[in-house]
Amino acid sequence: MASPDKQQKRAQRAKAKAKQNRSGKARPSVIHPVLNHAFVNEPFDDVEIDLSTFDFKDIEENGFDPADFDDLFQAMKQAESVSLLAMCVVFLQYPVLELVISEQDEEPATDFMMGLLITYRGLFHEEDEDTAVEWLGSNTFQTAYNEASVILQKKNARGAFARP
Asked: Is 18:42 a contact under the CB 8 Å cutoff?
């Protein structure tokens, strides 16, 4: 986990970026046009998420409360109005998800991601679990998800070179 100093600096940068996005003065993305939407590019910058209180073991043992992920689901819904690709980009930028992927083994992390996506489909598309799982396995979703991953890898690589 990052030091409190680093977290504070990260939060300050995020607030500045969120303000820039809200003011409409953000430069167009050269990585991919989907990132030109302020609610797709860095959608959680101005959302307070305390990652130190996140307990993955509790979720593994007891499941998760969808209300705890309302900020994610609302951001995904807004992005889905643009495209499935935009929704996937938003999903993959969720700080809790980034934490789980970096700290957990592949299988539990994948199960957690699948659980979030299945819950999202149930809430906003009124799908049962089997239908949602079928959607997750579809070529349409898989293509959008993989493209979103590539877009974010390029974005993160570009950002790594831009930072001092």
From this structure: yes
Rounded CA-CA distance 88/138 in Å is 14
CA 64 – CA 18 distance, rounded (Å):
28
Query: Which residue is associated with the tokens 């030109």?
Result: 36
CA atoms within 13 A on the CB side of 153: 6
Q: How far is CA 80 from the centre of its chain?
A: 13
Total Cβ atoms within 10 A of residue 37: 20
pLDDT tens, the chain, 164 aa long? 556 666 666 666 666 666 555 555 445 556 677 877 777 777 787 777 788 888 899 998 999 999 999 999 999 999 999 999 999 999 999 999 988 988 999 999 999 999 999 999 999 999 999 999 999 999 999 999 999 999 888 888 876 555 44
Which of these, 3, 58, 32, lies nearest to 155 by C-alpha position?
32
